[in-house]
Amino acid sequence: MGVKSVITDPIDEYSPLSRGSHAIRGLAWSGCGAITRVEVSVDGGQTWHDAHLEGPREKWIWARWSYLWEVNEPGHYKLMARATDEEGRTQPQTKWNYQRKHFDGIVPVDVDVE
């Protein structure tokens, strides 16, 4: 099983968000080892920022993570997260696997800010 992360908050249905501070939260896991890093992008993958990993960080245990997002401009944002495990494997940005079997690609969350 590959390296995987998902955004659990905010989700698409929370739009529109107000300008200001928002916590982006999620979960990450891997089939080969502990999660050592999660990065968050708020611009569709153009730039990446390190998220805070919560404990415990153990092999095969889901890792909780969070990132404080300061947004001051209204508009449409594509939030993304990618994880890296202790084996050095990083979650890929691949097309959706319609069979859903072992899919480990990055799934963006679209939000609007007013």
What is the global morphology?
globular
What is the CATH top level name? Mainly Beta
Mean pLDDT across the residues is 91
- Based on DSSP secondary structure assignment, what is the total number of beta strands? 8
Order of helices and strands: EEEEEEEE
Assembly of the depicted chains: single chain
Work out the helix count: 0
End-to-end distance: 39 Å
Percent of residues in β-strands: over 45%
Largest sheet: 4 strands, antiparallel
Number of folding domains? 1
Structural class: mainly beta
- The parts where pLDDT drops under 50 for at least 5 residues are none
CATH topology: Immunoglobulin-like
CATH architecture: Sandwich
Q: Classify the helix fraction into a percent range.
A: under 10%
Q: Radius of gyration, Cα only, in angstroms?
A: 14 Å
